[in-house]
Design goal:
Length: 201
């Protein structure tokens, strides 16, 4: 199975910038938001917000590390595409489609592949920063963070590896030595591969 990792944070917090230390041969980016990278790079990007295309790209990619940026737009764009539908079933479908993508990754027969979801945050009912969804109905259908074993919270160009009182960050015990690390996704990728005994490029 492949590994899905959540990197969540507000716009401008340093999520996309965290890719800066990857070489183009090491990382692929599925660019859901159709935006340029915030640094000069030879990293290949592919613009799409269609789940079937995303899944094919994940399956066929030769690189072992892939970023979906920004992943909440998979949900938001589907909502806008279906804005003419008056029933509430679309919210259930949107949650199901997003969870289906995570399930697809978990079932990929590529144990050395890591897929990073770069995702915006919003303030939840408990006052903590959480993964952004599209409303209370979706929150009831799907706890996004609950679908991931590794959730990093990005703030001020740093990653929090554990809940810091304002976020739902979490990581397995011993994966990182500190509760706060630089926003270096390449270093995170190296740490995850070492922790789980995974190969790289």
């Amino acid at each position: 199975m492949a590994t899905a990792v959540m990197i969540m944070g507000a716009s401008g917090s340093g999520k996309s910038a965290s890719m800066r230390n990857f070489k183009g041969s090491e990382l692929g980016v599925i660019n859901v938001a159709n935006k340029p990278l915030p640094f000069k790079s030879d990293i290949n990007t592919y613009n799409t917000d269609r789940y079937e295309v995303v899944e094919q790209l994940l399956k066929k990619a030769s690189v072992k590390s892939i970023v979906i940026d920004d992943s909440q737009y998979l949900m938001a764009n589907e909502l806008f595409d279906r804005s003419g539908e008056k029933n509430y079933e679309k919210f259930t479908d949107i949650a199901k489609n997003f969870r289906g993508l995570i399930h697809f990754i978990n079932e990929l027969d590529q144990d050395d592949k890591i897929v990073y979801f770069l995702h915006h945050t919003e303030v939840g009912a408990d006052g903590k920063e959480k993964c952004k969804t599209i409303g209370k109905m979706l929150d009831e259908k799907l706890c996004v963070e609950g679908c991931f074993d590794i959730v990093l919270y990005c703030q001020d160009h740093e990653f929090y590896t554990q809940g810091n009182g304002i976020s739902t960050a979490k990581t397995p015990e011993g994966l990182f030595d500190s509760a706060k690390i630089p926003n270096d996704l390449k270093a995170v990728d190296t740490a995850i591969r070492a922790y789980y005994g995974m190969g790289g490029d």
